[in-house]
Design a protein that fits this description.
The protein is mostly helical. The protein has one domain. Helix content is 74%, strand content 2%. The chain contains 12 helices and 2 strands. Strands 1-2 form a two-stranded antiparallel ribbon. A hairpin with a 5-residue loop joins strand 1 and strand 2. Helix 6 packs antiparallel against helix 8. The longest helix is centred in the last third of the chain and has 27 residues. The radius of gyration is 20 Å and the shape is globular. The protein starts with a helix and ends with a helix.
């Protein structure tokens, strides 16, 4: 598994995908942070993290589209299937490589908050309710970072599963974009539905509705379990795809 992990992590920077992903992610995060906090004269970071999650619609497929689709295209898939490593080891190696790049980029993007703390030494900004604060709330930022990392890991697992189904990287990216988009807009559909039972079910499956507690600085363990469960289910599905191919 560790050999596959190193190979996949290295492959991101052999071609342009890794550099493009990191560059686009950091640029988008910097612009969003500047626009939603300093330019808006607010320390409230809810809008920043919410918009960053929506940027995953494009960023995560860019990260995951090649994981298995490239192996099929280059006809190296059989080498993986006959390698002295379990299917779980192969899948986890690829997942951990993509997750390492994702989590590392998220943590690097946290430098965007340093200007807010520096600015807090000389200025007082108001939040969305008009309440004046002397600086950003660290607990909210930490909880939100944990939340978006968990959401990102779930989306990475989804992208991996889609990539395992096709050899066309563009098709894998488009399908992953569609799935993530649907998962993110589920909560927006509730305002147009009058049936409580349907609204309840949609809210239960919604990624964004479960993220709301993180924006108040609360580590919601039910949400953490939900995001980890999504990742686990799609990793299991990916393993089943390759179990079938190895013995089929």
């Amino acid at each position: 598994m560790f050999a596959i992990y190193k190979k996949e992590l290295r492959s991101y920077f052999i071609n342009a995908i890794g550099y493009v992903y990191v560059g686009v992610f950091l640029a988008a995060a910097a612009l969003l942070c500047c626009y939603t906090t300093l330019v808006s004269n607010s320390y409230k970071t809810t809008s920043y993290f919410t918009m960053l999650i929506f940027s995953f619609i494009i960023l995560i497929p860019l990260l995951t589209m090649k994981l298995f689709a490239e192996e099929k295209k280059l006809r190296t898939e059989q080498l993986l299937l006959t390698a002295p490593v379990s299917i779980w080891g192969m899948v986890m190696g690829k997942f951990l490589a993509a997750s390492t790049l994702f989590v590392g980029t998220v943590l690097v993007s946290c430098i965007n908050f340093f200007p807010m703390y520096s600015y807090a030494n000389t200025e007082r900004l108001a939040d969305e309710y008009g309440t004046t604060h002397i600086g950003p709330v660290t607990g909210e930022i930490v909880a939100c970072v944990v939340g978006i990392i968990l959401i990102g890991l779930a989306f990475v697992a989804i992208g991996m599963f889609v990539s395992s189904l096709t050899e066309n990287q563009l098709a894998a990216a488009v399908i992953t974009v569609a799935i993530i988009l649907v998962m993110l807009i589920l909560d927006l559909l509730n305002q147009y539905i009058n049936v409580y039972a349907i609204r309840f079910v949609i809210s239960w499956f919604s990624v964004l509705s479960r993220f709301s507690n993180f924006t108040t600085g609360i580590l919601d363990f039910s949400a953490i379990l939900y995001y980890l469960s999504i990742a686990g289910v799609f990793l299991l599905l990916t393993v089943r795809v390759y179990d079938k191919r190895r013995w089929g």
